[in-house]
Here is the input.
Amino acid sequence: MPAPQSVIDLVTRFESQLAAYKSGRYNETELRRDFLDPFFEALGWDVRNTGNASEKYRDVIHESSVEIGGQAKSADYLFKIGETPAFFVEAKKPSVNIETDPAPAFQLKSYAWSKKLSFSILTDFEQMAFYECATKPVFDANPGIGRIALYHFKDYLSKWDEIAARISRSAVTSGAFETFVQGVKGKRGTQDVDDSFLAEMERWRDLLAHNIALRNPSVTQRELNTAVQTTIDRLIFLRICEDRGIEPEENLKNATDGIDVYADLLELFRKADKKYNSGLFHFTAEKNRPGHADTFTPTLKIDDKVFKDILSNLYLPKSPYRFNYFSADILGQVYERFLGRVIRLTPGHIAKVEEKPEVRKAGGVYYTPTYIVDYIVKNTVGELLNDKTPESLKITPLRILDPACGSGSFLLGAYQFLMDWYLDWYVHNDPKKHSRGADPAVIEVPGGWQLTLEKKKDILTRHIFGVDIDTQAVEVTKLSLLLKVVENPGQLSLFSEERILPDLAENIKCGNSLIAPDFYDGQQGTLFDSEEQYRVNAFDWYKEFSEVFLYGGFDAVIGNPPYGQVLDEKQKPYYSSKYKSTEGRFDTFELFIERGVSLCKFERKLGFIIPSPLLTNLYSRKLRKYLLDETNIHEITNFGMDVFSDPTIHTCIIVVERSSKKGNVKVRNKVKNFQDLHLPYDFEISQLEFGKNQYYTFDIFSNPETVELLQKFSDNSKLLGDICFIRQCIKTGNDKIYVNLFTEDPGIPWKPTLRGRTINRYVILEDKEYLKYGNWLARNWQNKTFYETPKIAVRETGNRIIATLDEDNRYFLSSLYAIYPKKKDDSKLLKYILGLLNSSVATYFIRIIALDLTQGAFTKFRTNQLARFPIHFIDFSNPAEVAQHDHLVALVETMLTLHKQLAAARLPDEKERLQRQITTTDRQIDQLVYQLYDLTPEEIAIVEGS
Here is the structure.
């Protein structure tokens, strides 16, 4: 396709007056108006917003660039589709040589990298450079680094098709742009801005922790953690405010010029308190001001060299960061991981930074993706705003809670949603009226309307609430919310002499959401020293949020509660007595669900992302019954994808309403990508028909046909989990070190072992592997009774159950589950169960309740799903049933023998004969199992058809 006439005219005009345009007198503003705006309009972009789209949905945002110290703080254009940014365009006047000058290239790449855009454009119209921007930019680097293409203005005619195929609006909407960007994205040396900034912050923590511990011998471990975190938070807040034009340029950096840097910084912090009124800078007690003043950190001694090192890396030439482009999401991801480590003081008062035990156990920190936050907020908070007005929300407050707020991702999502809702309402209901008076809600800005600072503060303090047990997480949540308030720097200069931020001490609080002060009732105080009480951190919801509970509770409870089995022996009895849903082994997320529902007003909603085993886990039976009894379950959305970076974490979203009413449960049973969240639900089922089995399982993959068949399996059966222990096995931490092959038993400390790949149905494939056994192993190694007993080995992955018998006391690795009887050593029982597990009935069952449920990066089922398999109960007083039992055991013994013979066979015809016998015996086992479960020919066809 040839270039359009408008582009031909632009090129002709530029060429005819090239000398004039390249003179220093022709500036960027003129270039954008005369050439760049019409050029990108020719590519299909509505550059001038002729379609009158709202600010949020414009094609192109013309950045109101703050220029300080001769350096622009924003790119000239941001191109986007809807709310999704695509790329920046940075304009330079034609007198600048963008091909050879490193400064413009670094400027563009630092903008894009800081906003997590992998591609952007630098142009003076004479030339146009396409840059890959996923690689961390380096100041003064060769401008050719990362350059994908360089077009001369005459190329706009000859290569128009190529340019349009890459950056036109239709290229972005069709996905061609994304394919192009992924194809040119740097493979080596790329580092996301959040990974880079996290490494920077962790280095600061090391510097501050070691120096404060060294210079302040009396500081305690808790004080040290608080001081380091608070100091970093203050520096980040003020540095971001500098790049947003709220604080003087290089204010922090200039503080390093004096002879006592920390004293100069404290002076800046005190000025910030007068300006912002934020608890982050609360140094002096004031009447009617919530929270406690910080009288501790100003007394610390910190060496100048520490701050000079930290602050020099926040400015050019060392810093590639453009803090005005640091989104709340970027900071949230950084802080979520940052909070996963803690400072410990050694007996010699040396600071050591290490992972928190709970993070180490979980295998890392997993930040909730933005699309999950947005979806839950929309389906809880969004539903509550139907038919509401700003005035009605003053009369009947809408209060939103995250009871385990972490770094604040859900509260930030809710706050942004509310601000968008308020602004949209005002814009569509006479905005000029709402921009007047003593307390205006909106202010007119170039191109549209914005909420006033006072209205943003009001929305925050009126609607947003959070609790976390971690003091540092609470402070990070406050920091993130305050930075969200000051995202529009243009307004803030109007308030430079006023305190412009709210103190969030009454909104975001530190405490244990699950444990109230009655935890200590009837217990001797000496059992709980001050450190233990600090760790427990009991929290009185009704005292801390008394006004909320005057209105009956919170209107929406949202979040991603922590996952993990409750191990604290002192706390278990409390949970068992205070929570209706606890039994056996219970998980913290289950407690948070019950707590969250209890904190909701009646007929208000809870929306959580939680582990999907809740739907079927035997140990969650009472929680499912609680949800069926106490709530109206609106939605279950199960993910057949890896929402988090760990493929072993399988999750679902539940949205419930605290209500005695029962409606239909809307179900999505396998969302494969985030776009599927916008598709219709797979089906609806009456809640009264949901969970109608003895364990109240939410079988979201069942249709009427499968429900009936699963129920038939359960008739005259006992669950495997009631008959046997099902154990997760040893995780070594490093198989290469701790697992080896030996031709003979090597003796202590080695133990014979098996893993998933060394077994198949009825056979052990490799019996010469040994495990180096001892306390160096990572997990599940302590209890020898798991292993020194006859047991069934079940492979944890596969598209069917793969099981065999171990009678040689092997120590299984984590890719196997161990199954052994609860009551006694019974080899016949094990062989009977082994035959059932390897049957087609078990394959059908596990595919229905487990494999569909947990398909992520690989197909896997879990102990709680195995535990649900119904083992047909044998009435040993009935000769016919005894005969069936003994026949099945005999067939299993035959299979075990045949597989051993097959493994030893050498001749092809011998192998073929044995394989035929195995196939025949396997079929006989299936037929016998069909008889045990009393299946009809039609039901057998369903099982075998799966």
